[in-house]
Amino acid sequence: MPPTLLPSSSARPLMALASRLSSTTATTCSLRQSSLTSTTSTTSSSATRSFSTTSPHLTKTVKPHRLPSDLIPPYPYGQRLVYKQSNAGLYGSARIRFGNTVAPKHNNKARRLWRPNVHVKTFLIPSLGARIKTRLTLRVLKTIRREGGIENYLLKSKPARLKELGPGGWNLRWLLMQSRAVQQRFNDERVTLGLEPRELEDRDDIIQYALDYATPGPLSLRSKATLAEMRAALDQTFVLGDEDLADLEGIQELSDEEEALLMQQIDRADEAARTSQIKVEKEKQNLEV
Fold first, then answer.
1. Which protein family is it in (predicted)?
2. Total domains in the fold of the chain
3. DSSP summary character for residue 90
4. CA–CA dist 135, 121 (Å, integer)
5. Helix pair 180-192, 159-177: axis angle to 10 deg
6. What's the pTM?
7. What is the rounded end-to-end Cα distance, in angstroms, of the chain?
């Protein structure tokens, strides 16, 4: 039996260092495995979050100054030339004011200005199914609360309210009047006044096109179809006279030379009629004498 070799005193520190290194390596491997498992779990959790079944918002947030101006009738009082920022919001009659501050002791004047108290507010309009985000003054917001909502504020028909709306409020008012709910509201008012109600018109396509136009991004397929229909309606020409001439493809257009000749003939016919009338009047005068 061979004799067993015992470690010498000089080899003992080396063995202790090797055992420490092996334990450190094992700890590092375990930490790496735990980090890999944690990243895998976070990745799986983030992947599950991306497939959420939360229902998206069914309403759009629209700014009134982005509505199509070629579709809406022009504002009867025109654009505001003073404090033009008020054209894009509900500022009422508020304007920027200029003045001076006077020191009480030495009466020194310092030029300054006072801006309106403007805030940003988002209103939900149920008749349109959309949210309207606009700038407005605190006084207008107080008036909206007193009227019972932004719909009542926009639909009031007094001249002072129309002047207060401005171009931005006028756009919202016109768009709101296209909805079936507001048409029914006006019919109820007509019945109350003893008038006959009007037939309700389906203008949902126009409303959706206007809202889609005011929303950033390309138009939807429905809005593109509505725009094509409106352009086709504008391209149709209105023919005066005989209905048989409605098809103008086989008829030659009147040239400038032919038009000038026709005008000369009309002038000659008018001159002949005048001369004949003058002769008749002279003959009557001679007979009376």
1. Belongs to the bacterial ribosomal protein bL28 family.
2. 1
3. B
4. 6
5. 130
6. 0.60
7. 178
